[in-house]
Amino acid sequence: MTLSYTVKLISVAFALASVGLDTTKAIAQTIYPFNGNYDTRIEIVPIDEELSQSIELATSSDPEAPYGLTQYEGLIYARTDPATGALNFDTNPATFGLPDLPPGYIVFEGEGTDNKLRGTATATATLDRENLTGSGSGTLTITGGEGIFTGATGTLDFTQVDRLNPDPNVLSLEGDAVITGSIETVPEPGGVGTLAGVGVIGAGLLLHRQRQKLTKNT
Questions:
Q1: Is residue 72 domain-shared with residue 154, that is, in the same domain?
Q2: What is the pLDDT of residues 6-56, one digit of tens each?
């Protein structure tokens, strides 16, 4: 009778432990779909004949911006292909042989929210200087964040249509960007360990109490 009860108790103990582990698996990741429209402005600062530094500021054209991220800003470097006029962009200046310049970045944020996204970017673009238009596309690689995006990773794709400033002495563009993709977050290691630990501790307490009862009865 005692042996049978102990076996049942051990089964319950393992069940409690597995609850903690299963809960950990259930919250292992959260996926946040992202779909936003932004009005952009890009200021271009030449470094030499082919290389330049671009500072981008954008605000959401949608009153319900995704997760309250109503704006983003970025620092990105570009090289112009002298043969075609096409532009290649990268937030890493070392890509263009400029390792001593500060690294670029992309940051999404918004007023009234603690949510924030950080990442890097690569892109290509073409400019039609005769018609004062441009278009481009690229990828934003999310490397971290704050608020609900703590520990975030993911990939966002974007397309952009630009209008060149008609003043040849002013290097700037204004346009519209559409950004889509998904972002994944993983809970802090401490939080995951706590959930698993609850099940293990509960199992240990049950077994300890049963041993005490058996000791008293013998």
A1: yes
A2: 444 445 444 544 545 455 445 568 999 999 999 999 999 999 999 999 999
Which of 147, 146, 197, 188 has the alpha carbon at shortest distance from 29? 188
Query: What is the structure's pLDDT at 10?
Result: 43
What is the C-alpha to C-alpha distance for residues 140 and 58, in angstroms, rounded to an integer? 15
Check whether residue 52 and residue 84 sit in a common domain: yes
Q: What is the dihedral of CA 108, 110, 113, 118, to 10 degrees?
A: 10
Domain that holds residue 174: 30-186
Beta strands per DSSP E along 147-187: 153-164, 172-185
Q: How many domains does the chain have?
A: 2
User: Residues for the chain: how many in total?
Assistant: 218
The 10s digit of each residue's pLDDT in 142-193 is 999 999 999 999 999 999 999 999 998 888 999 999 999 999 998 766 544 5
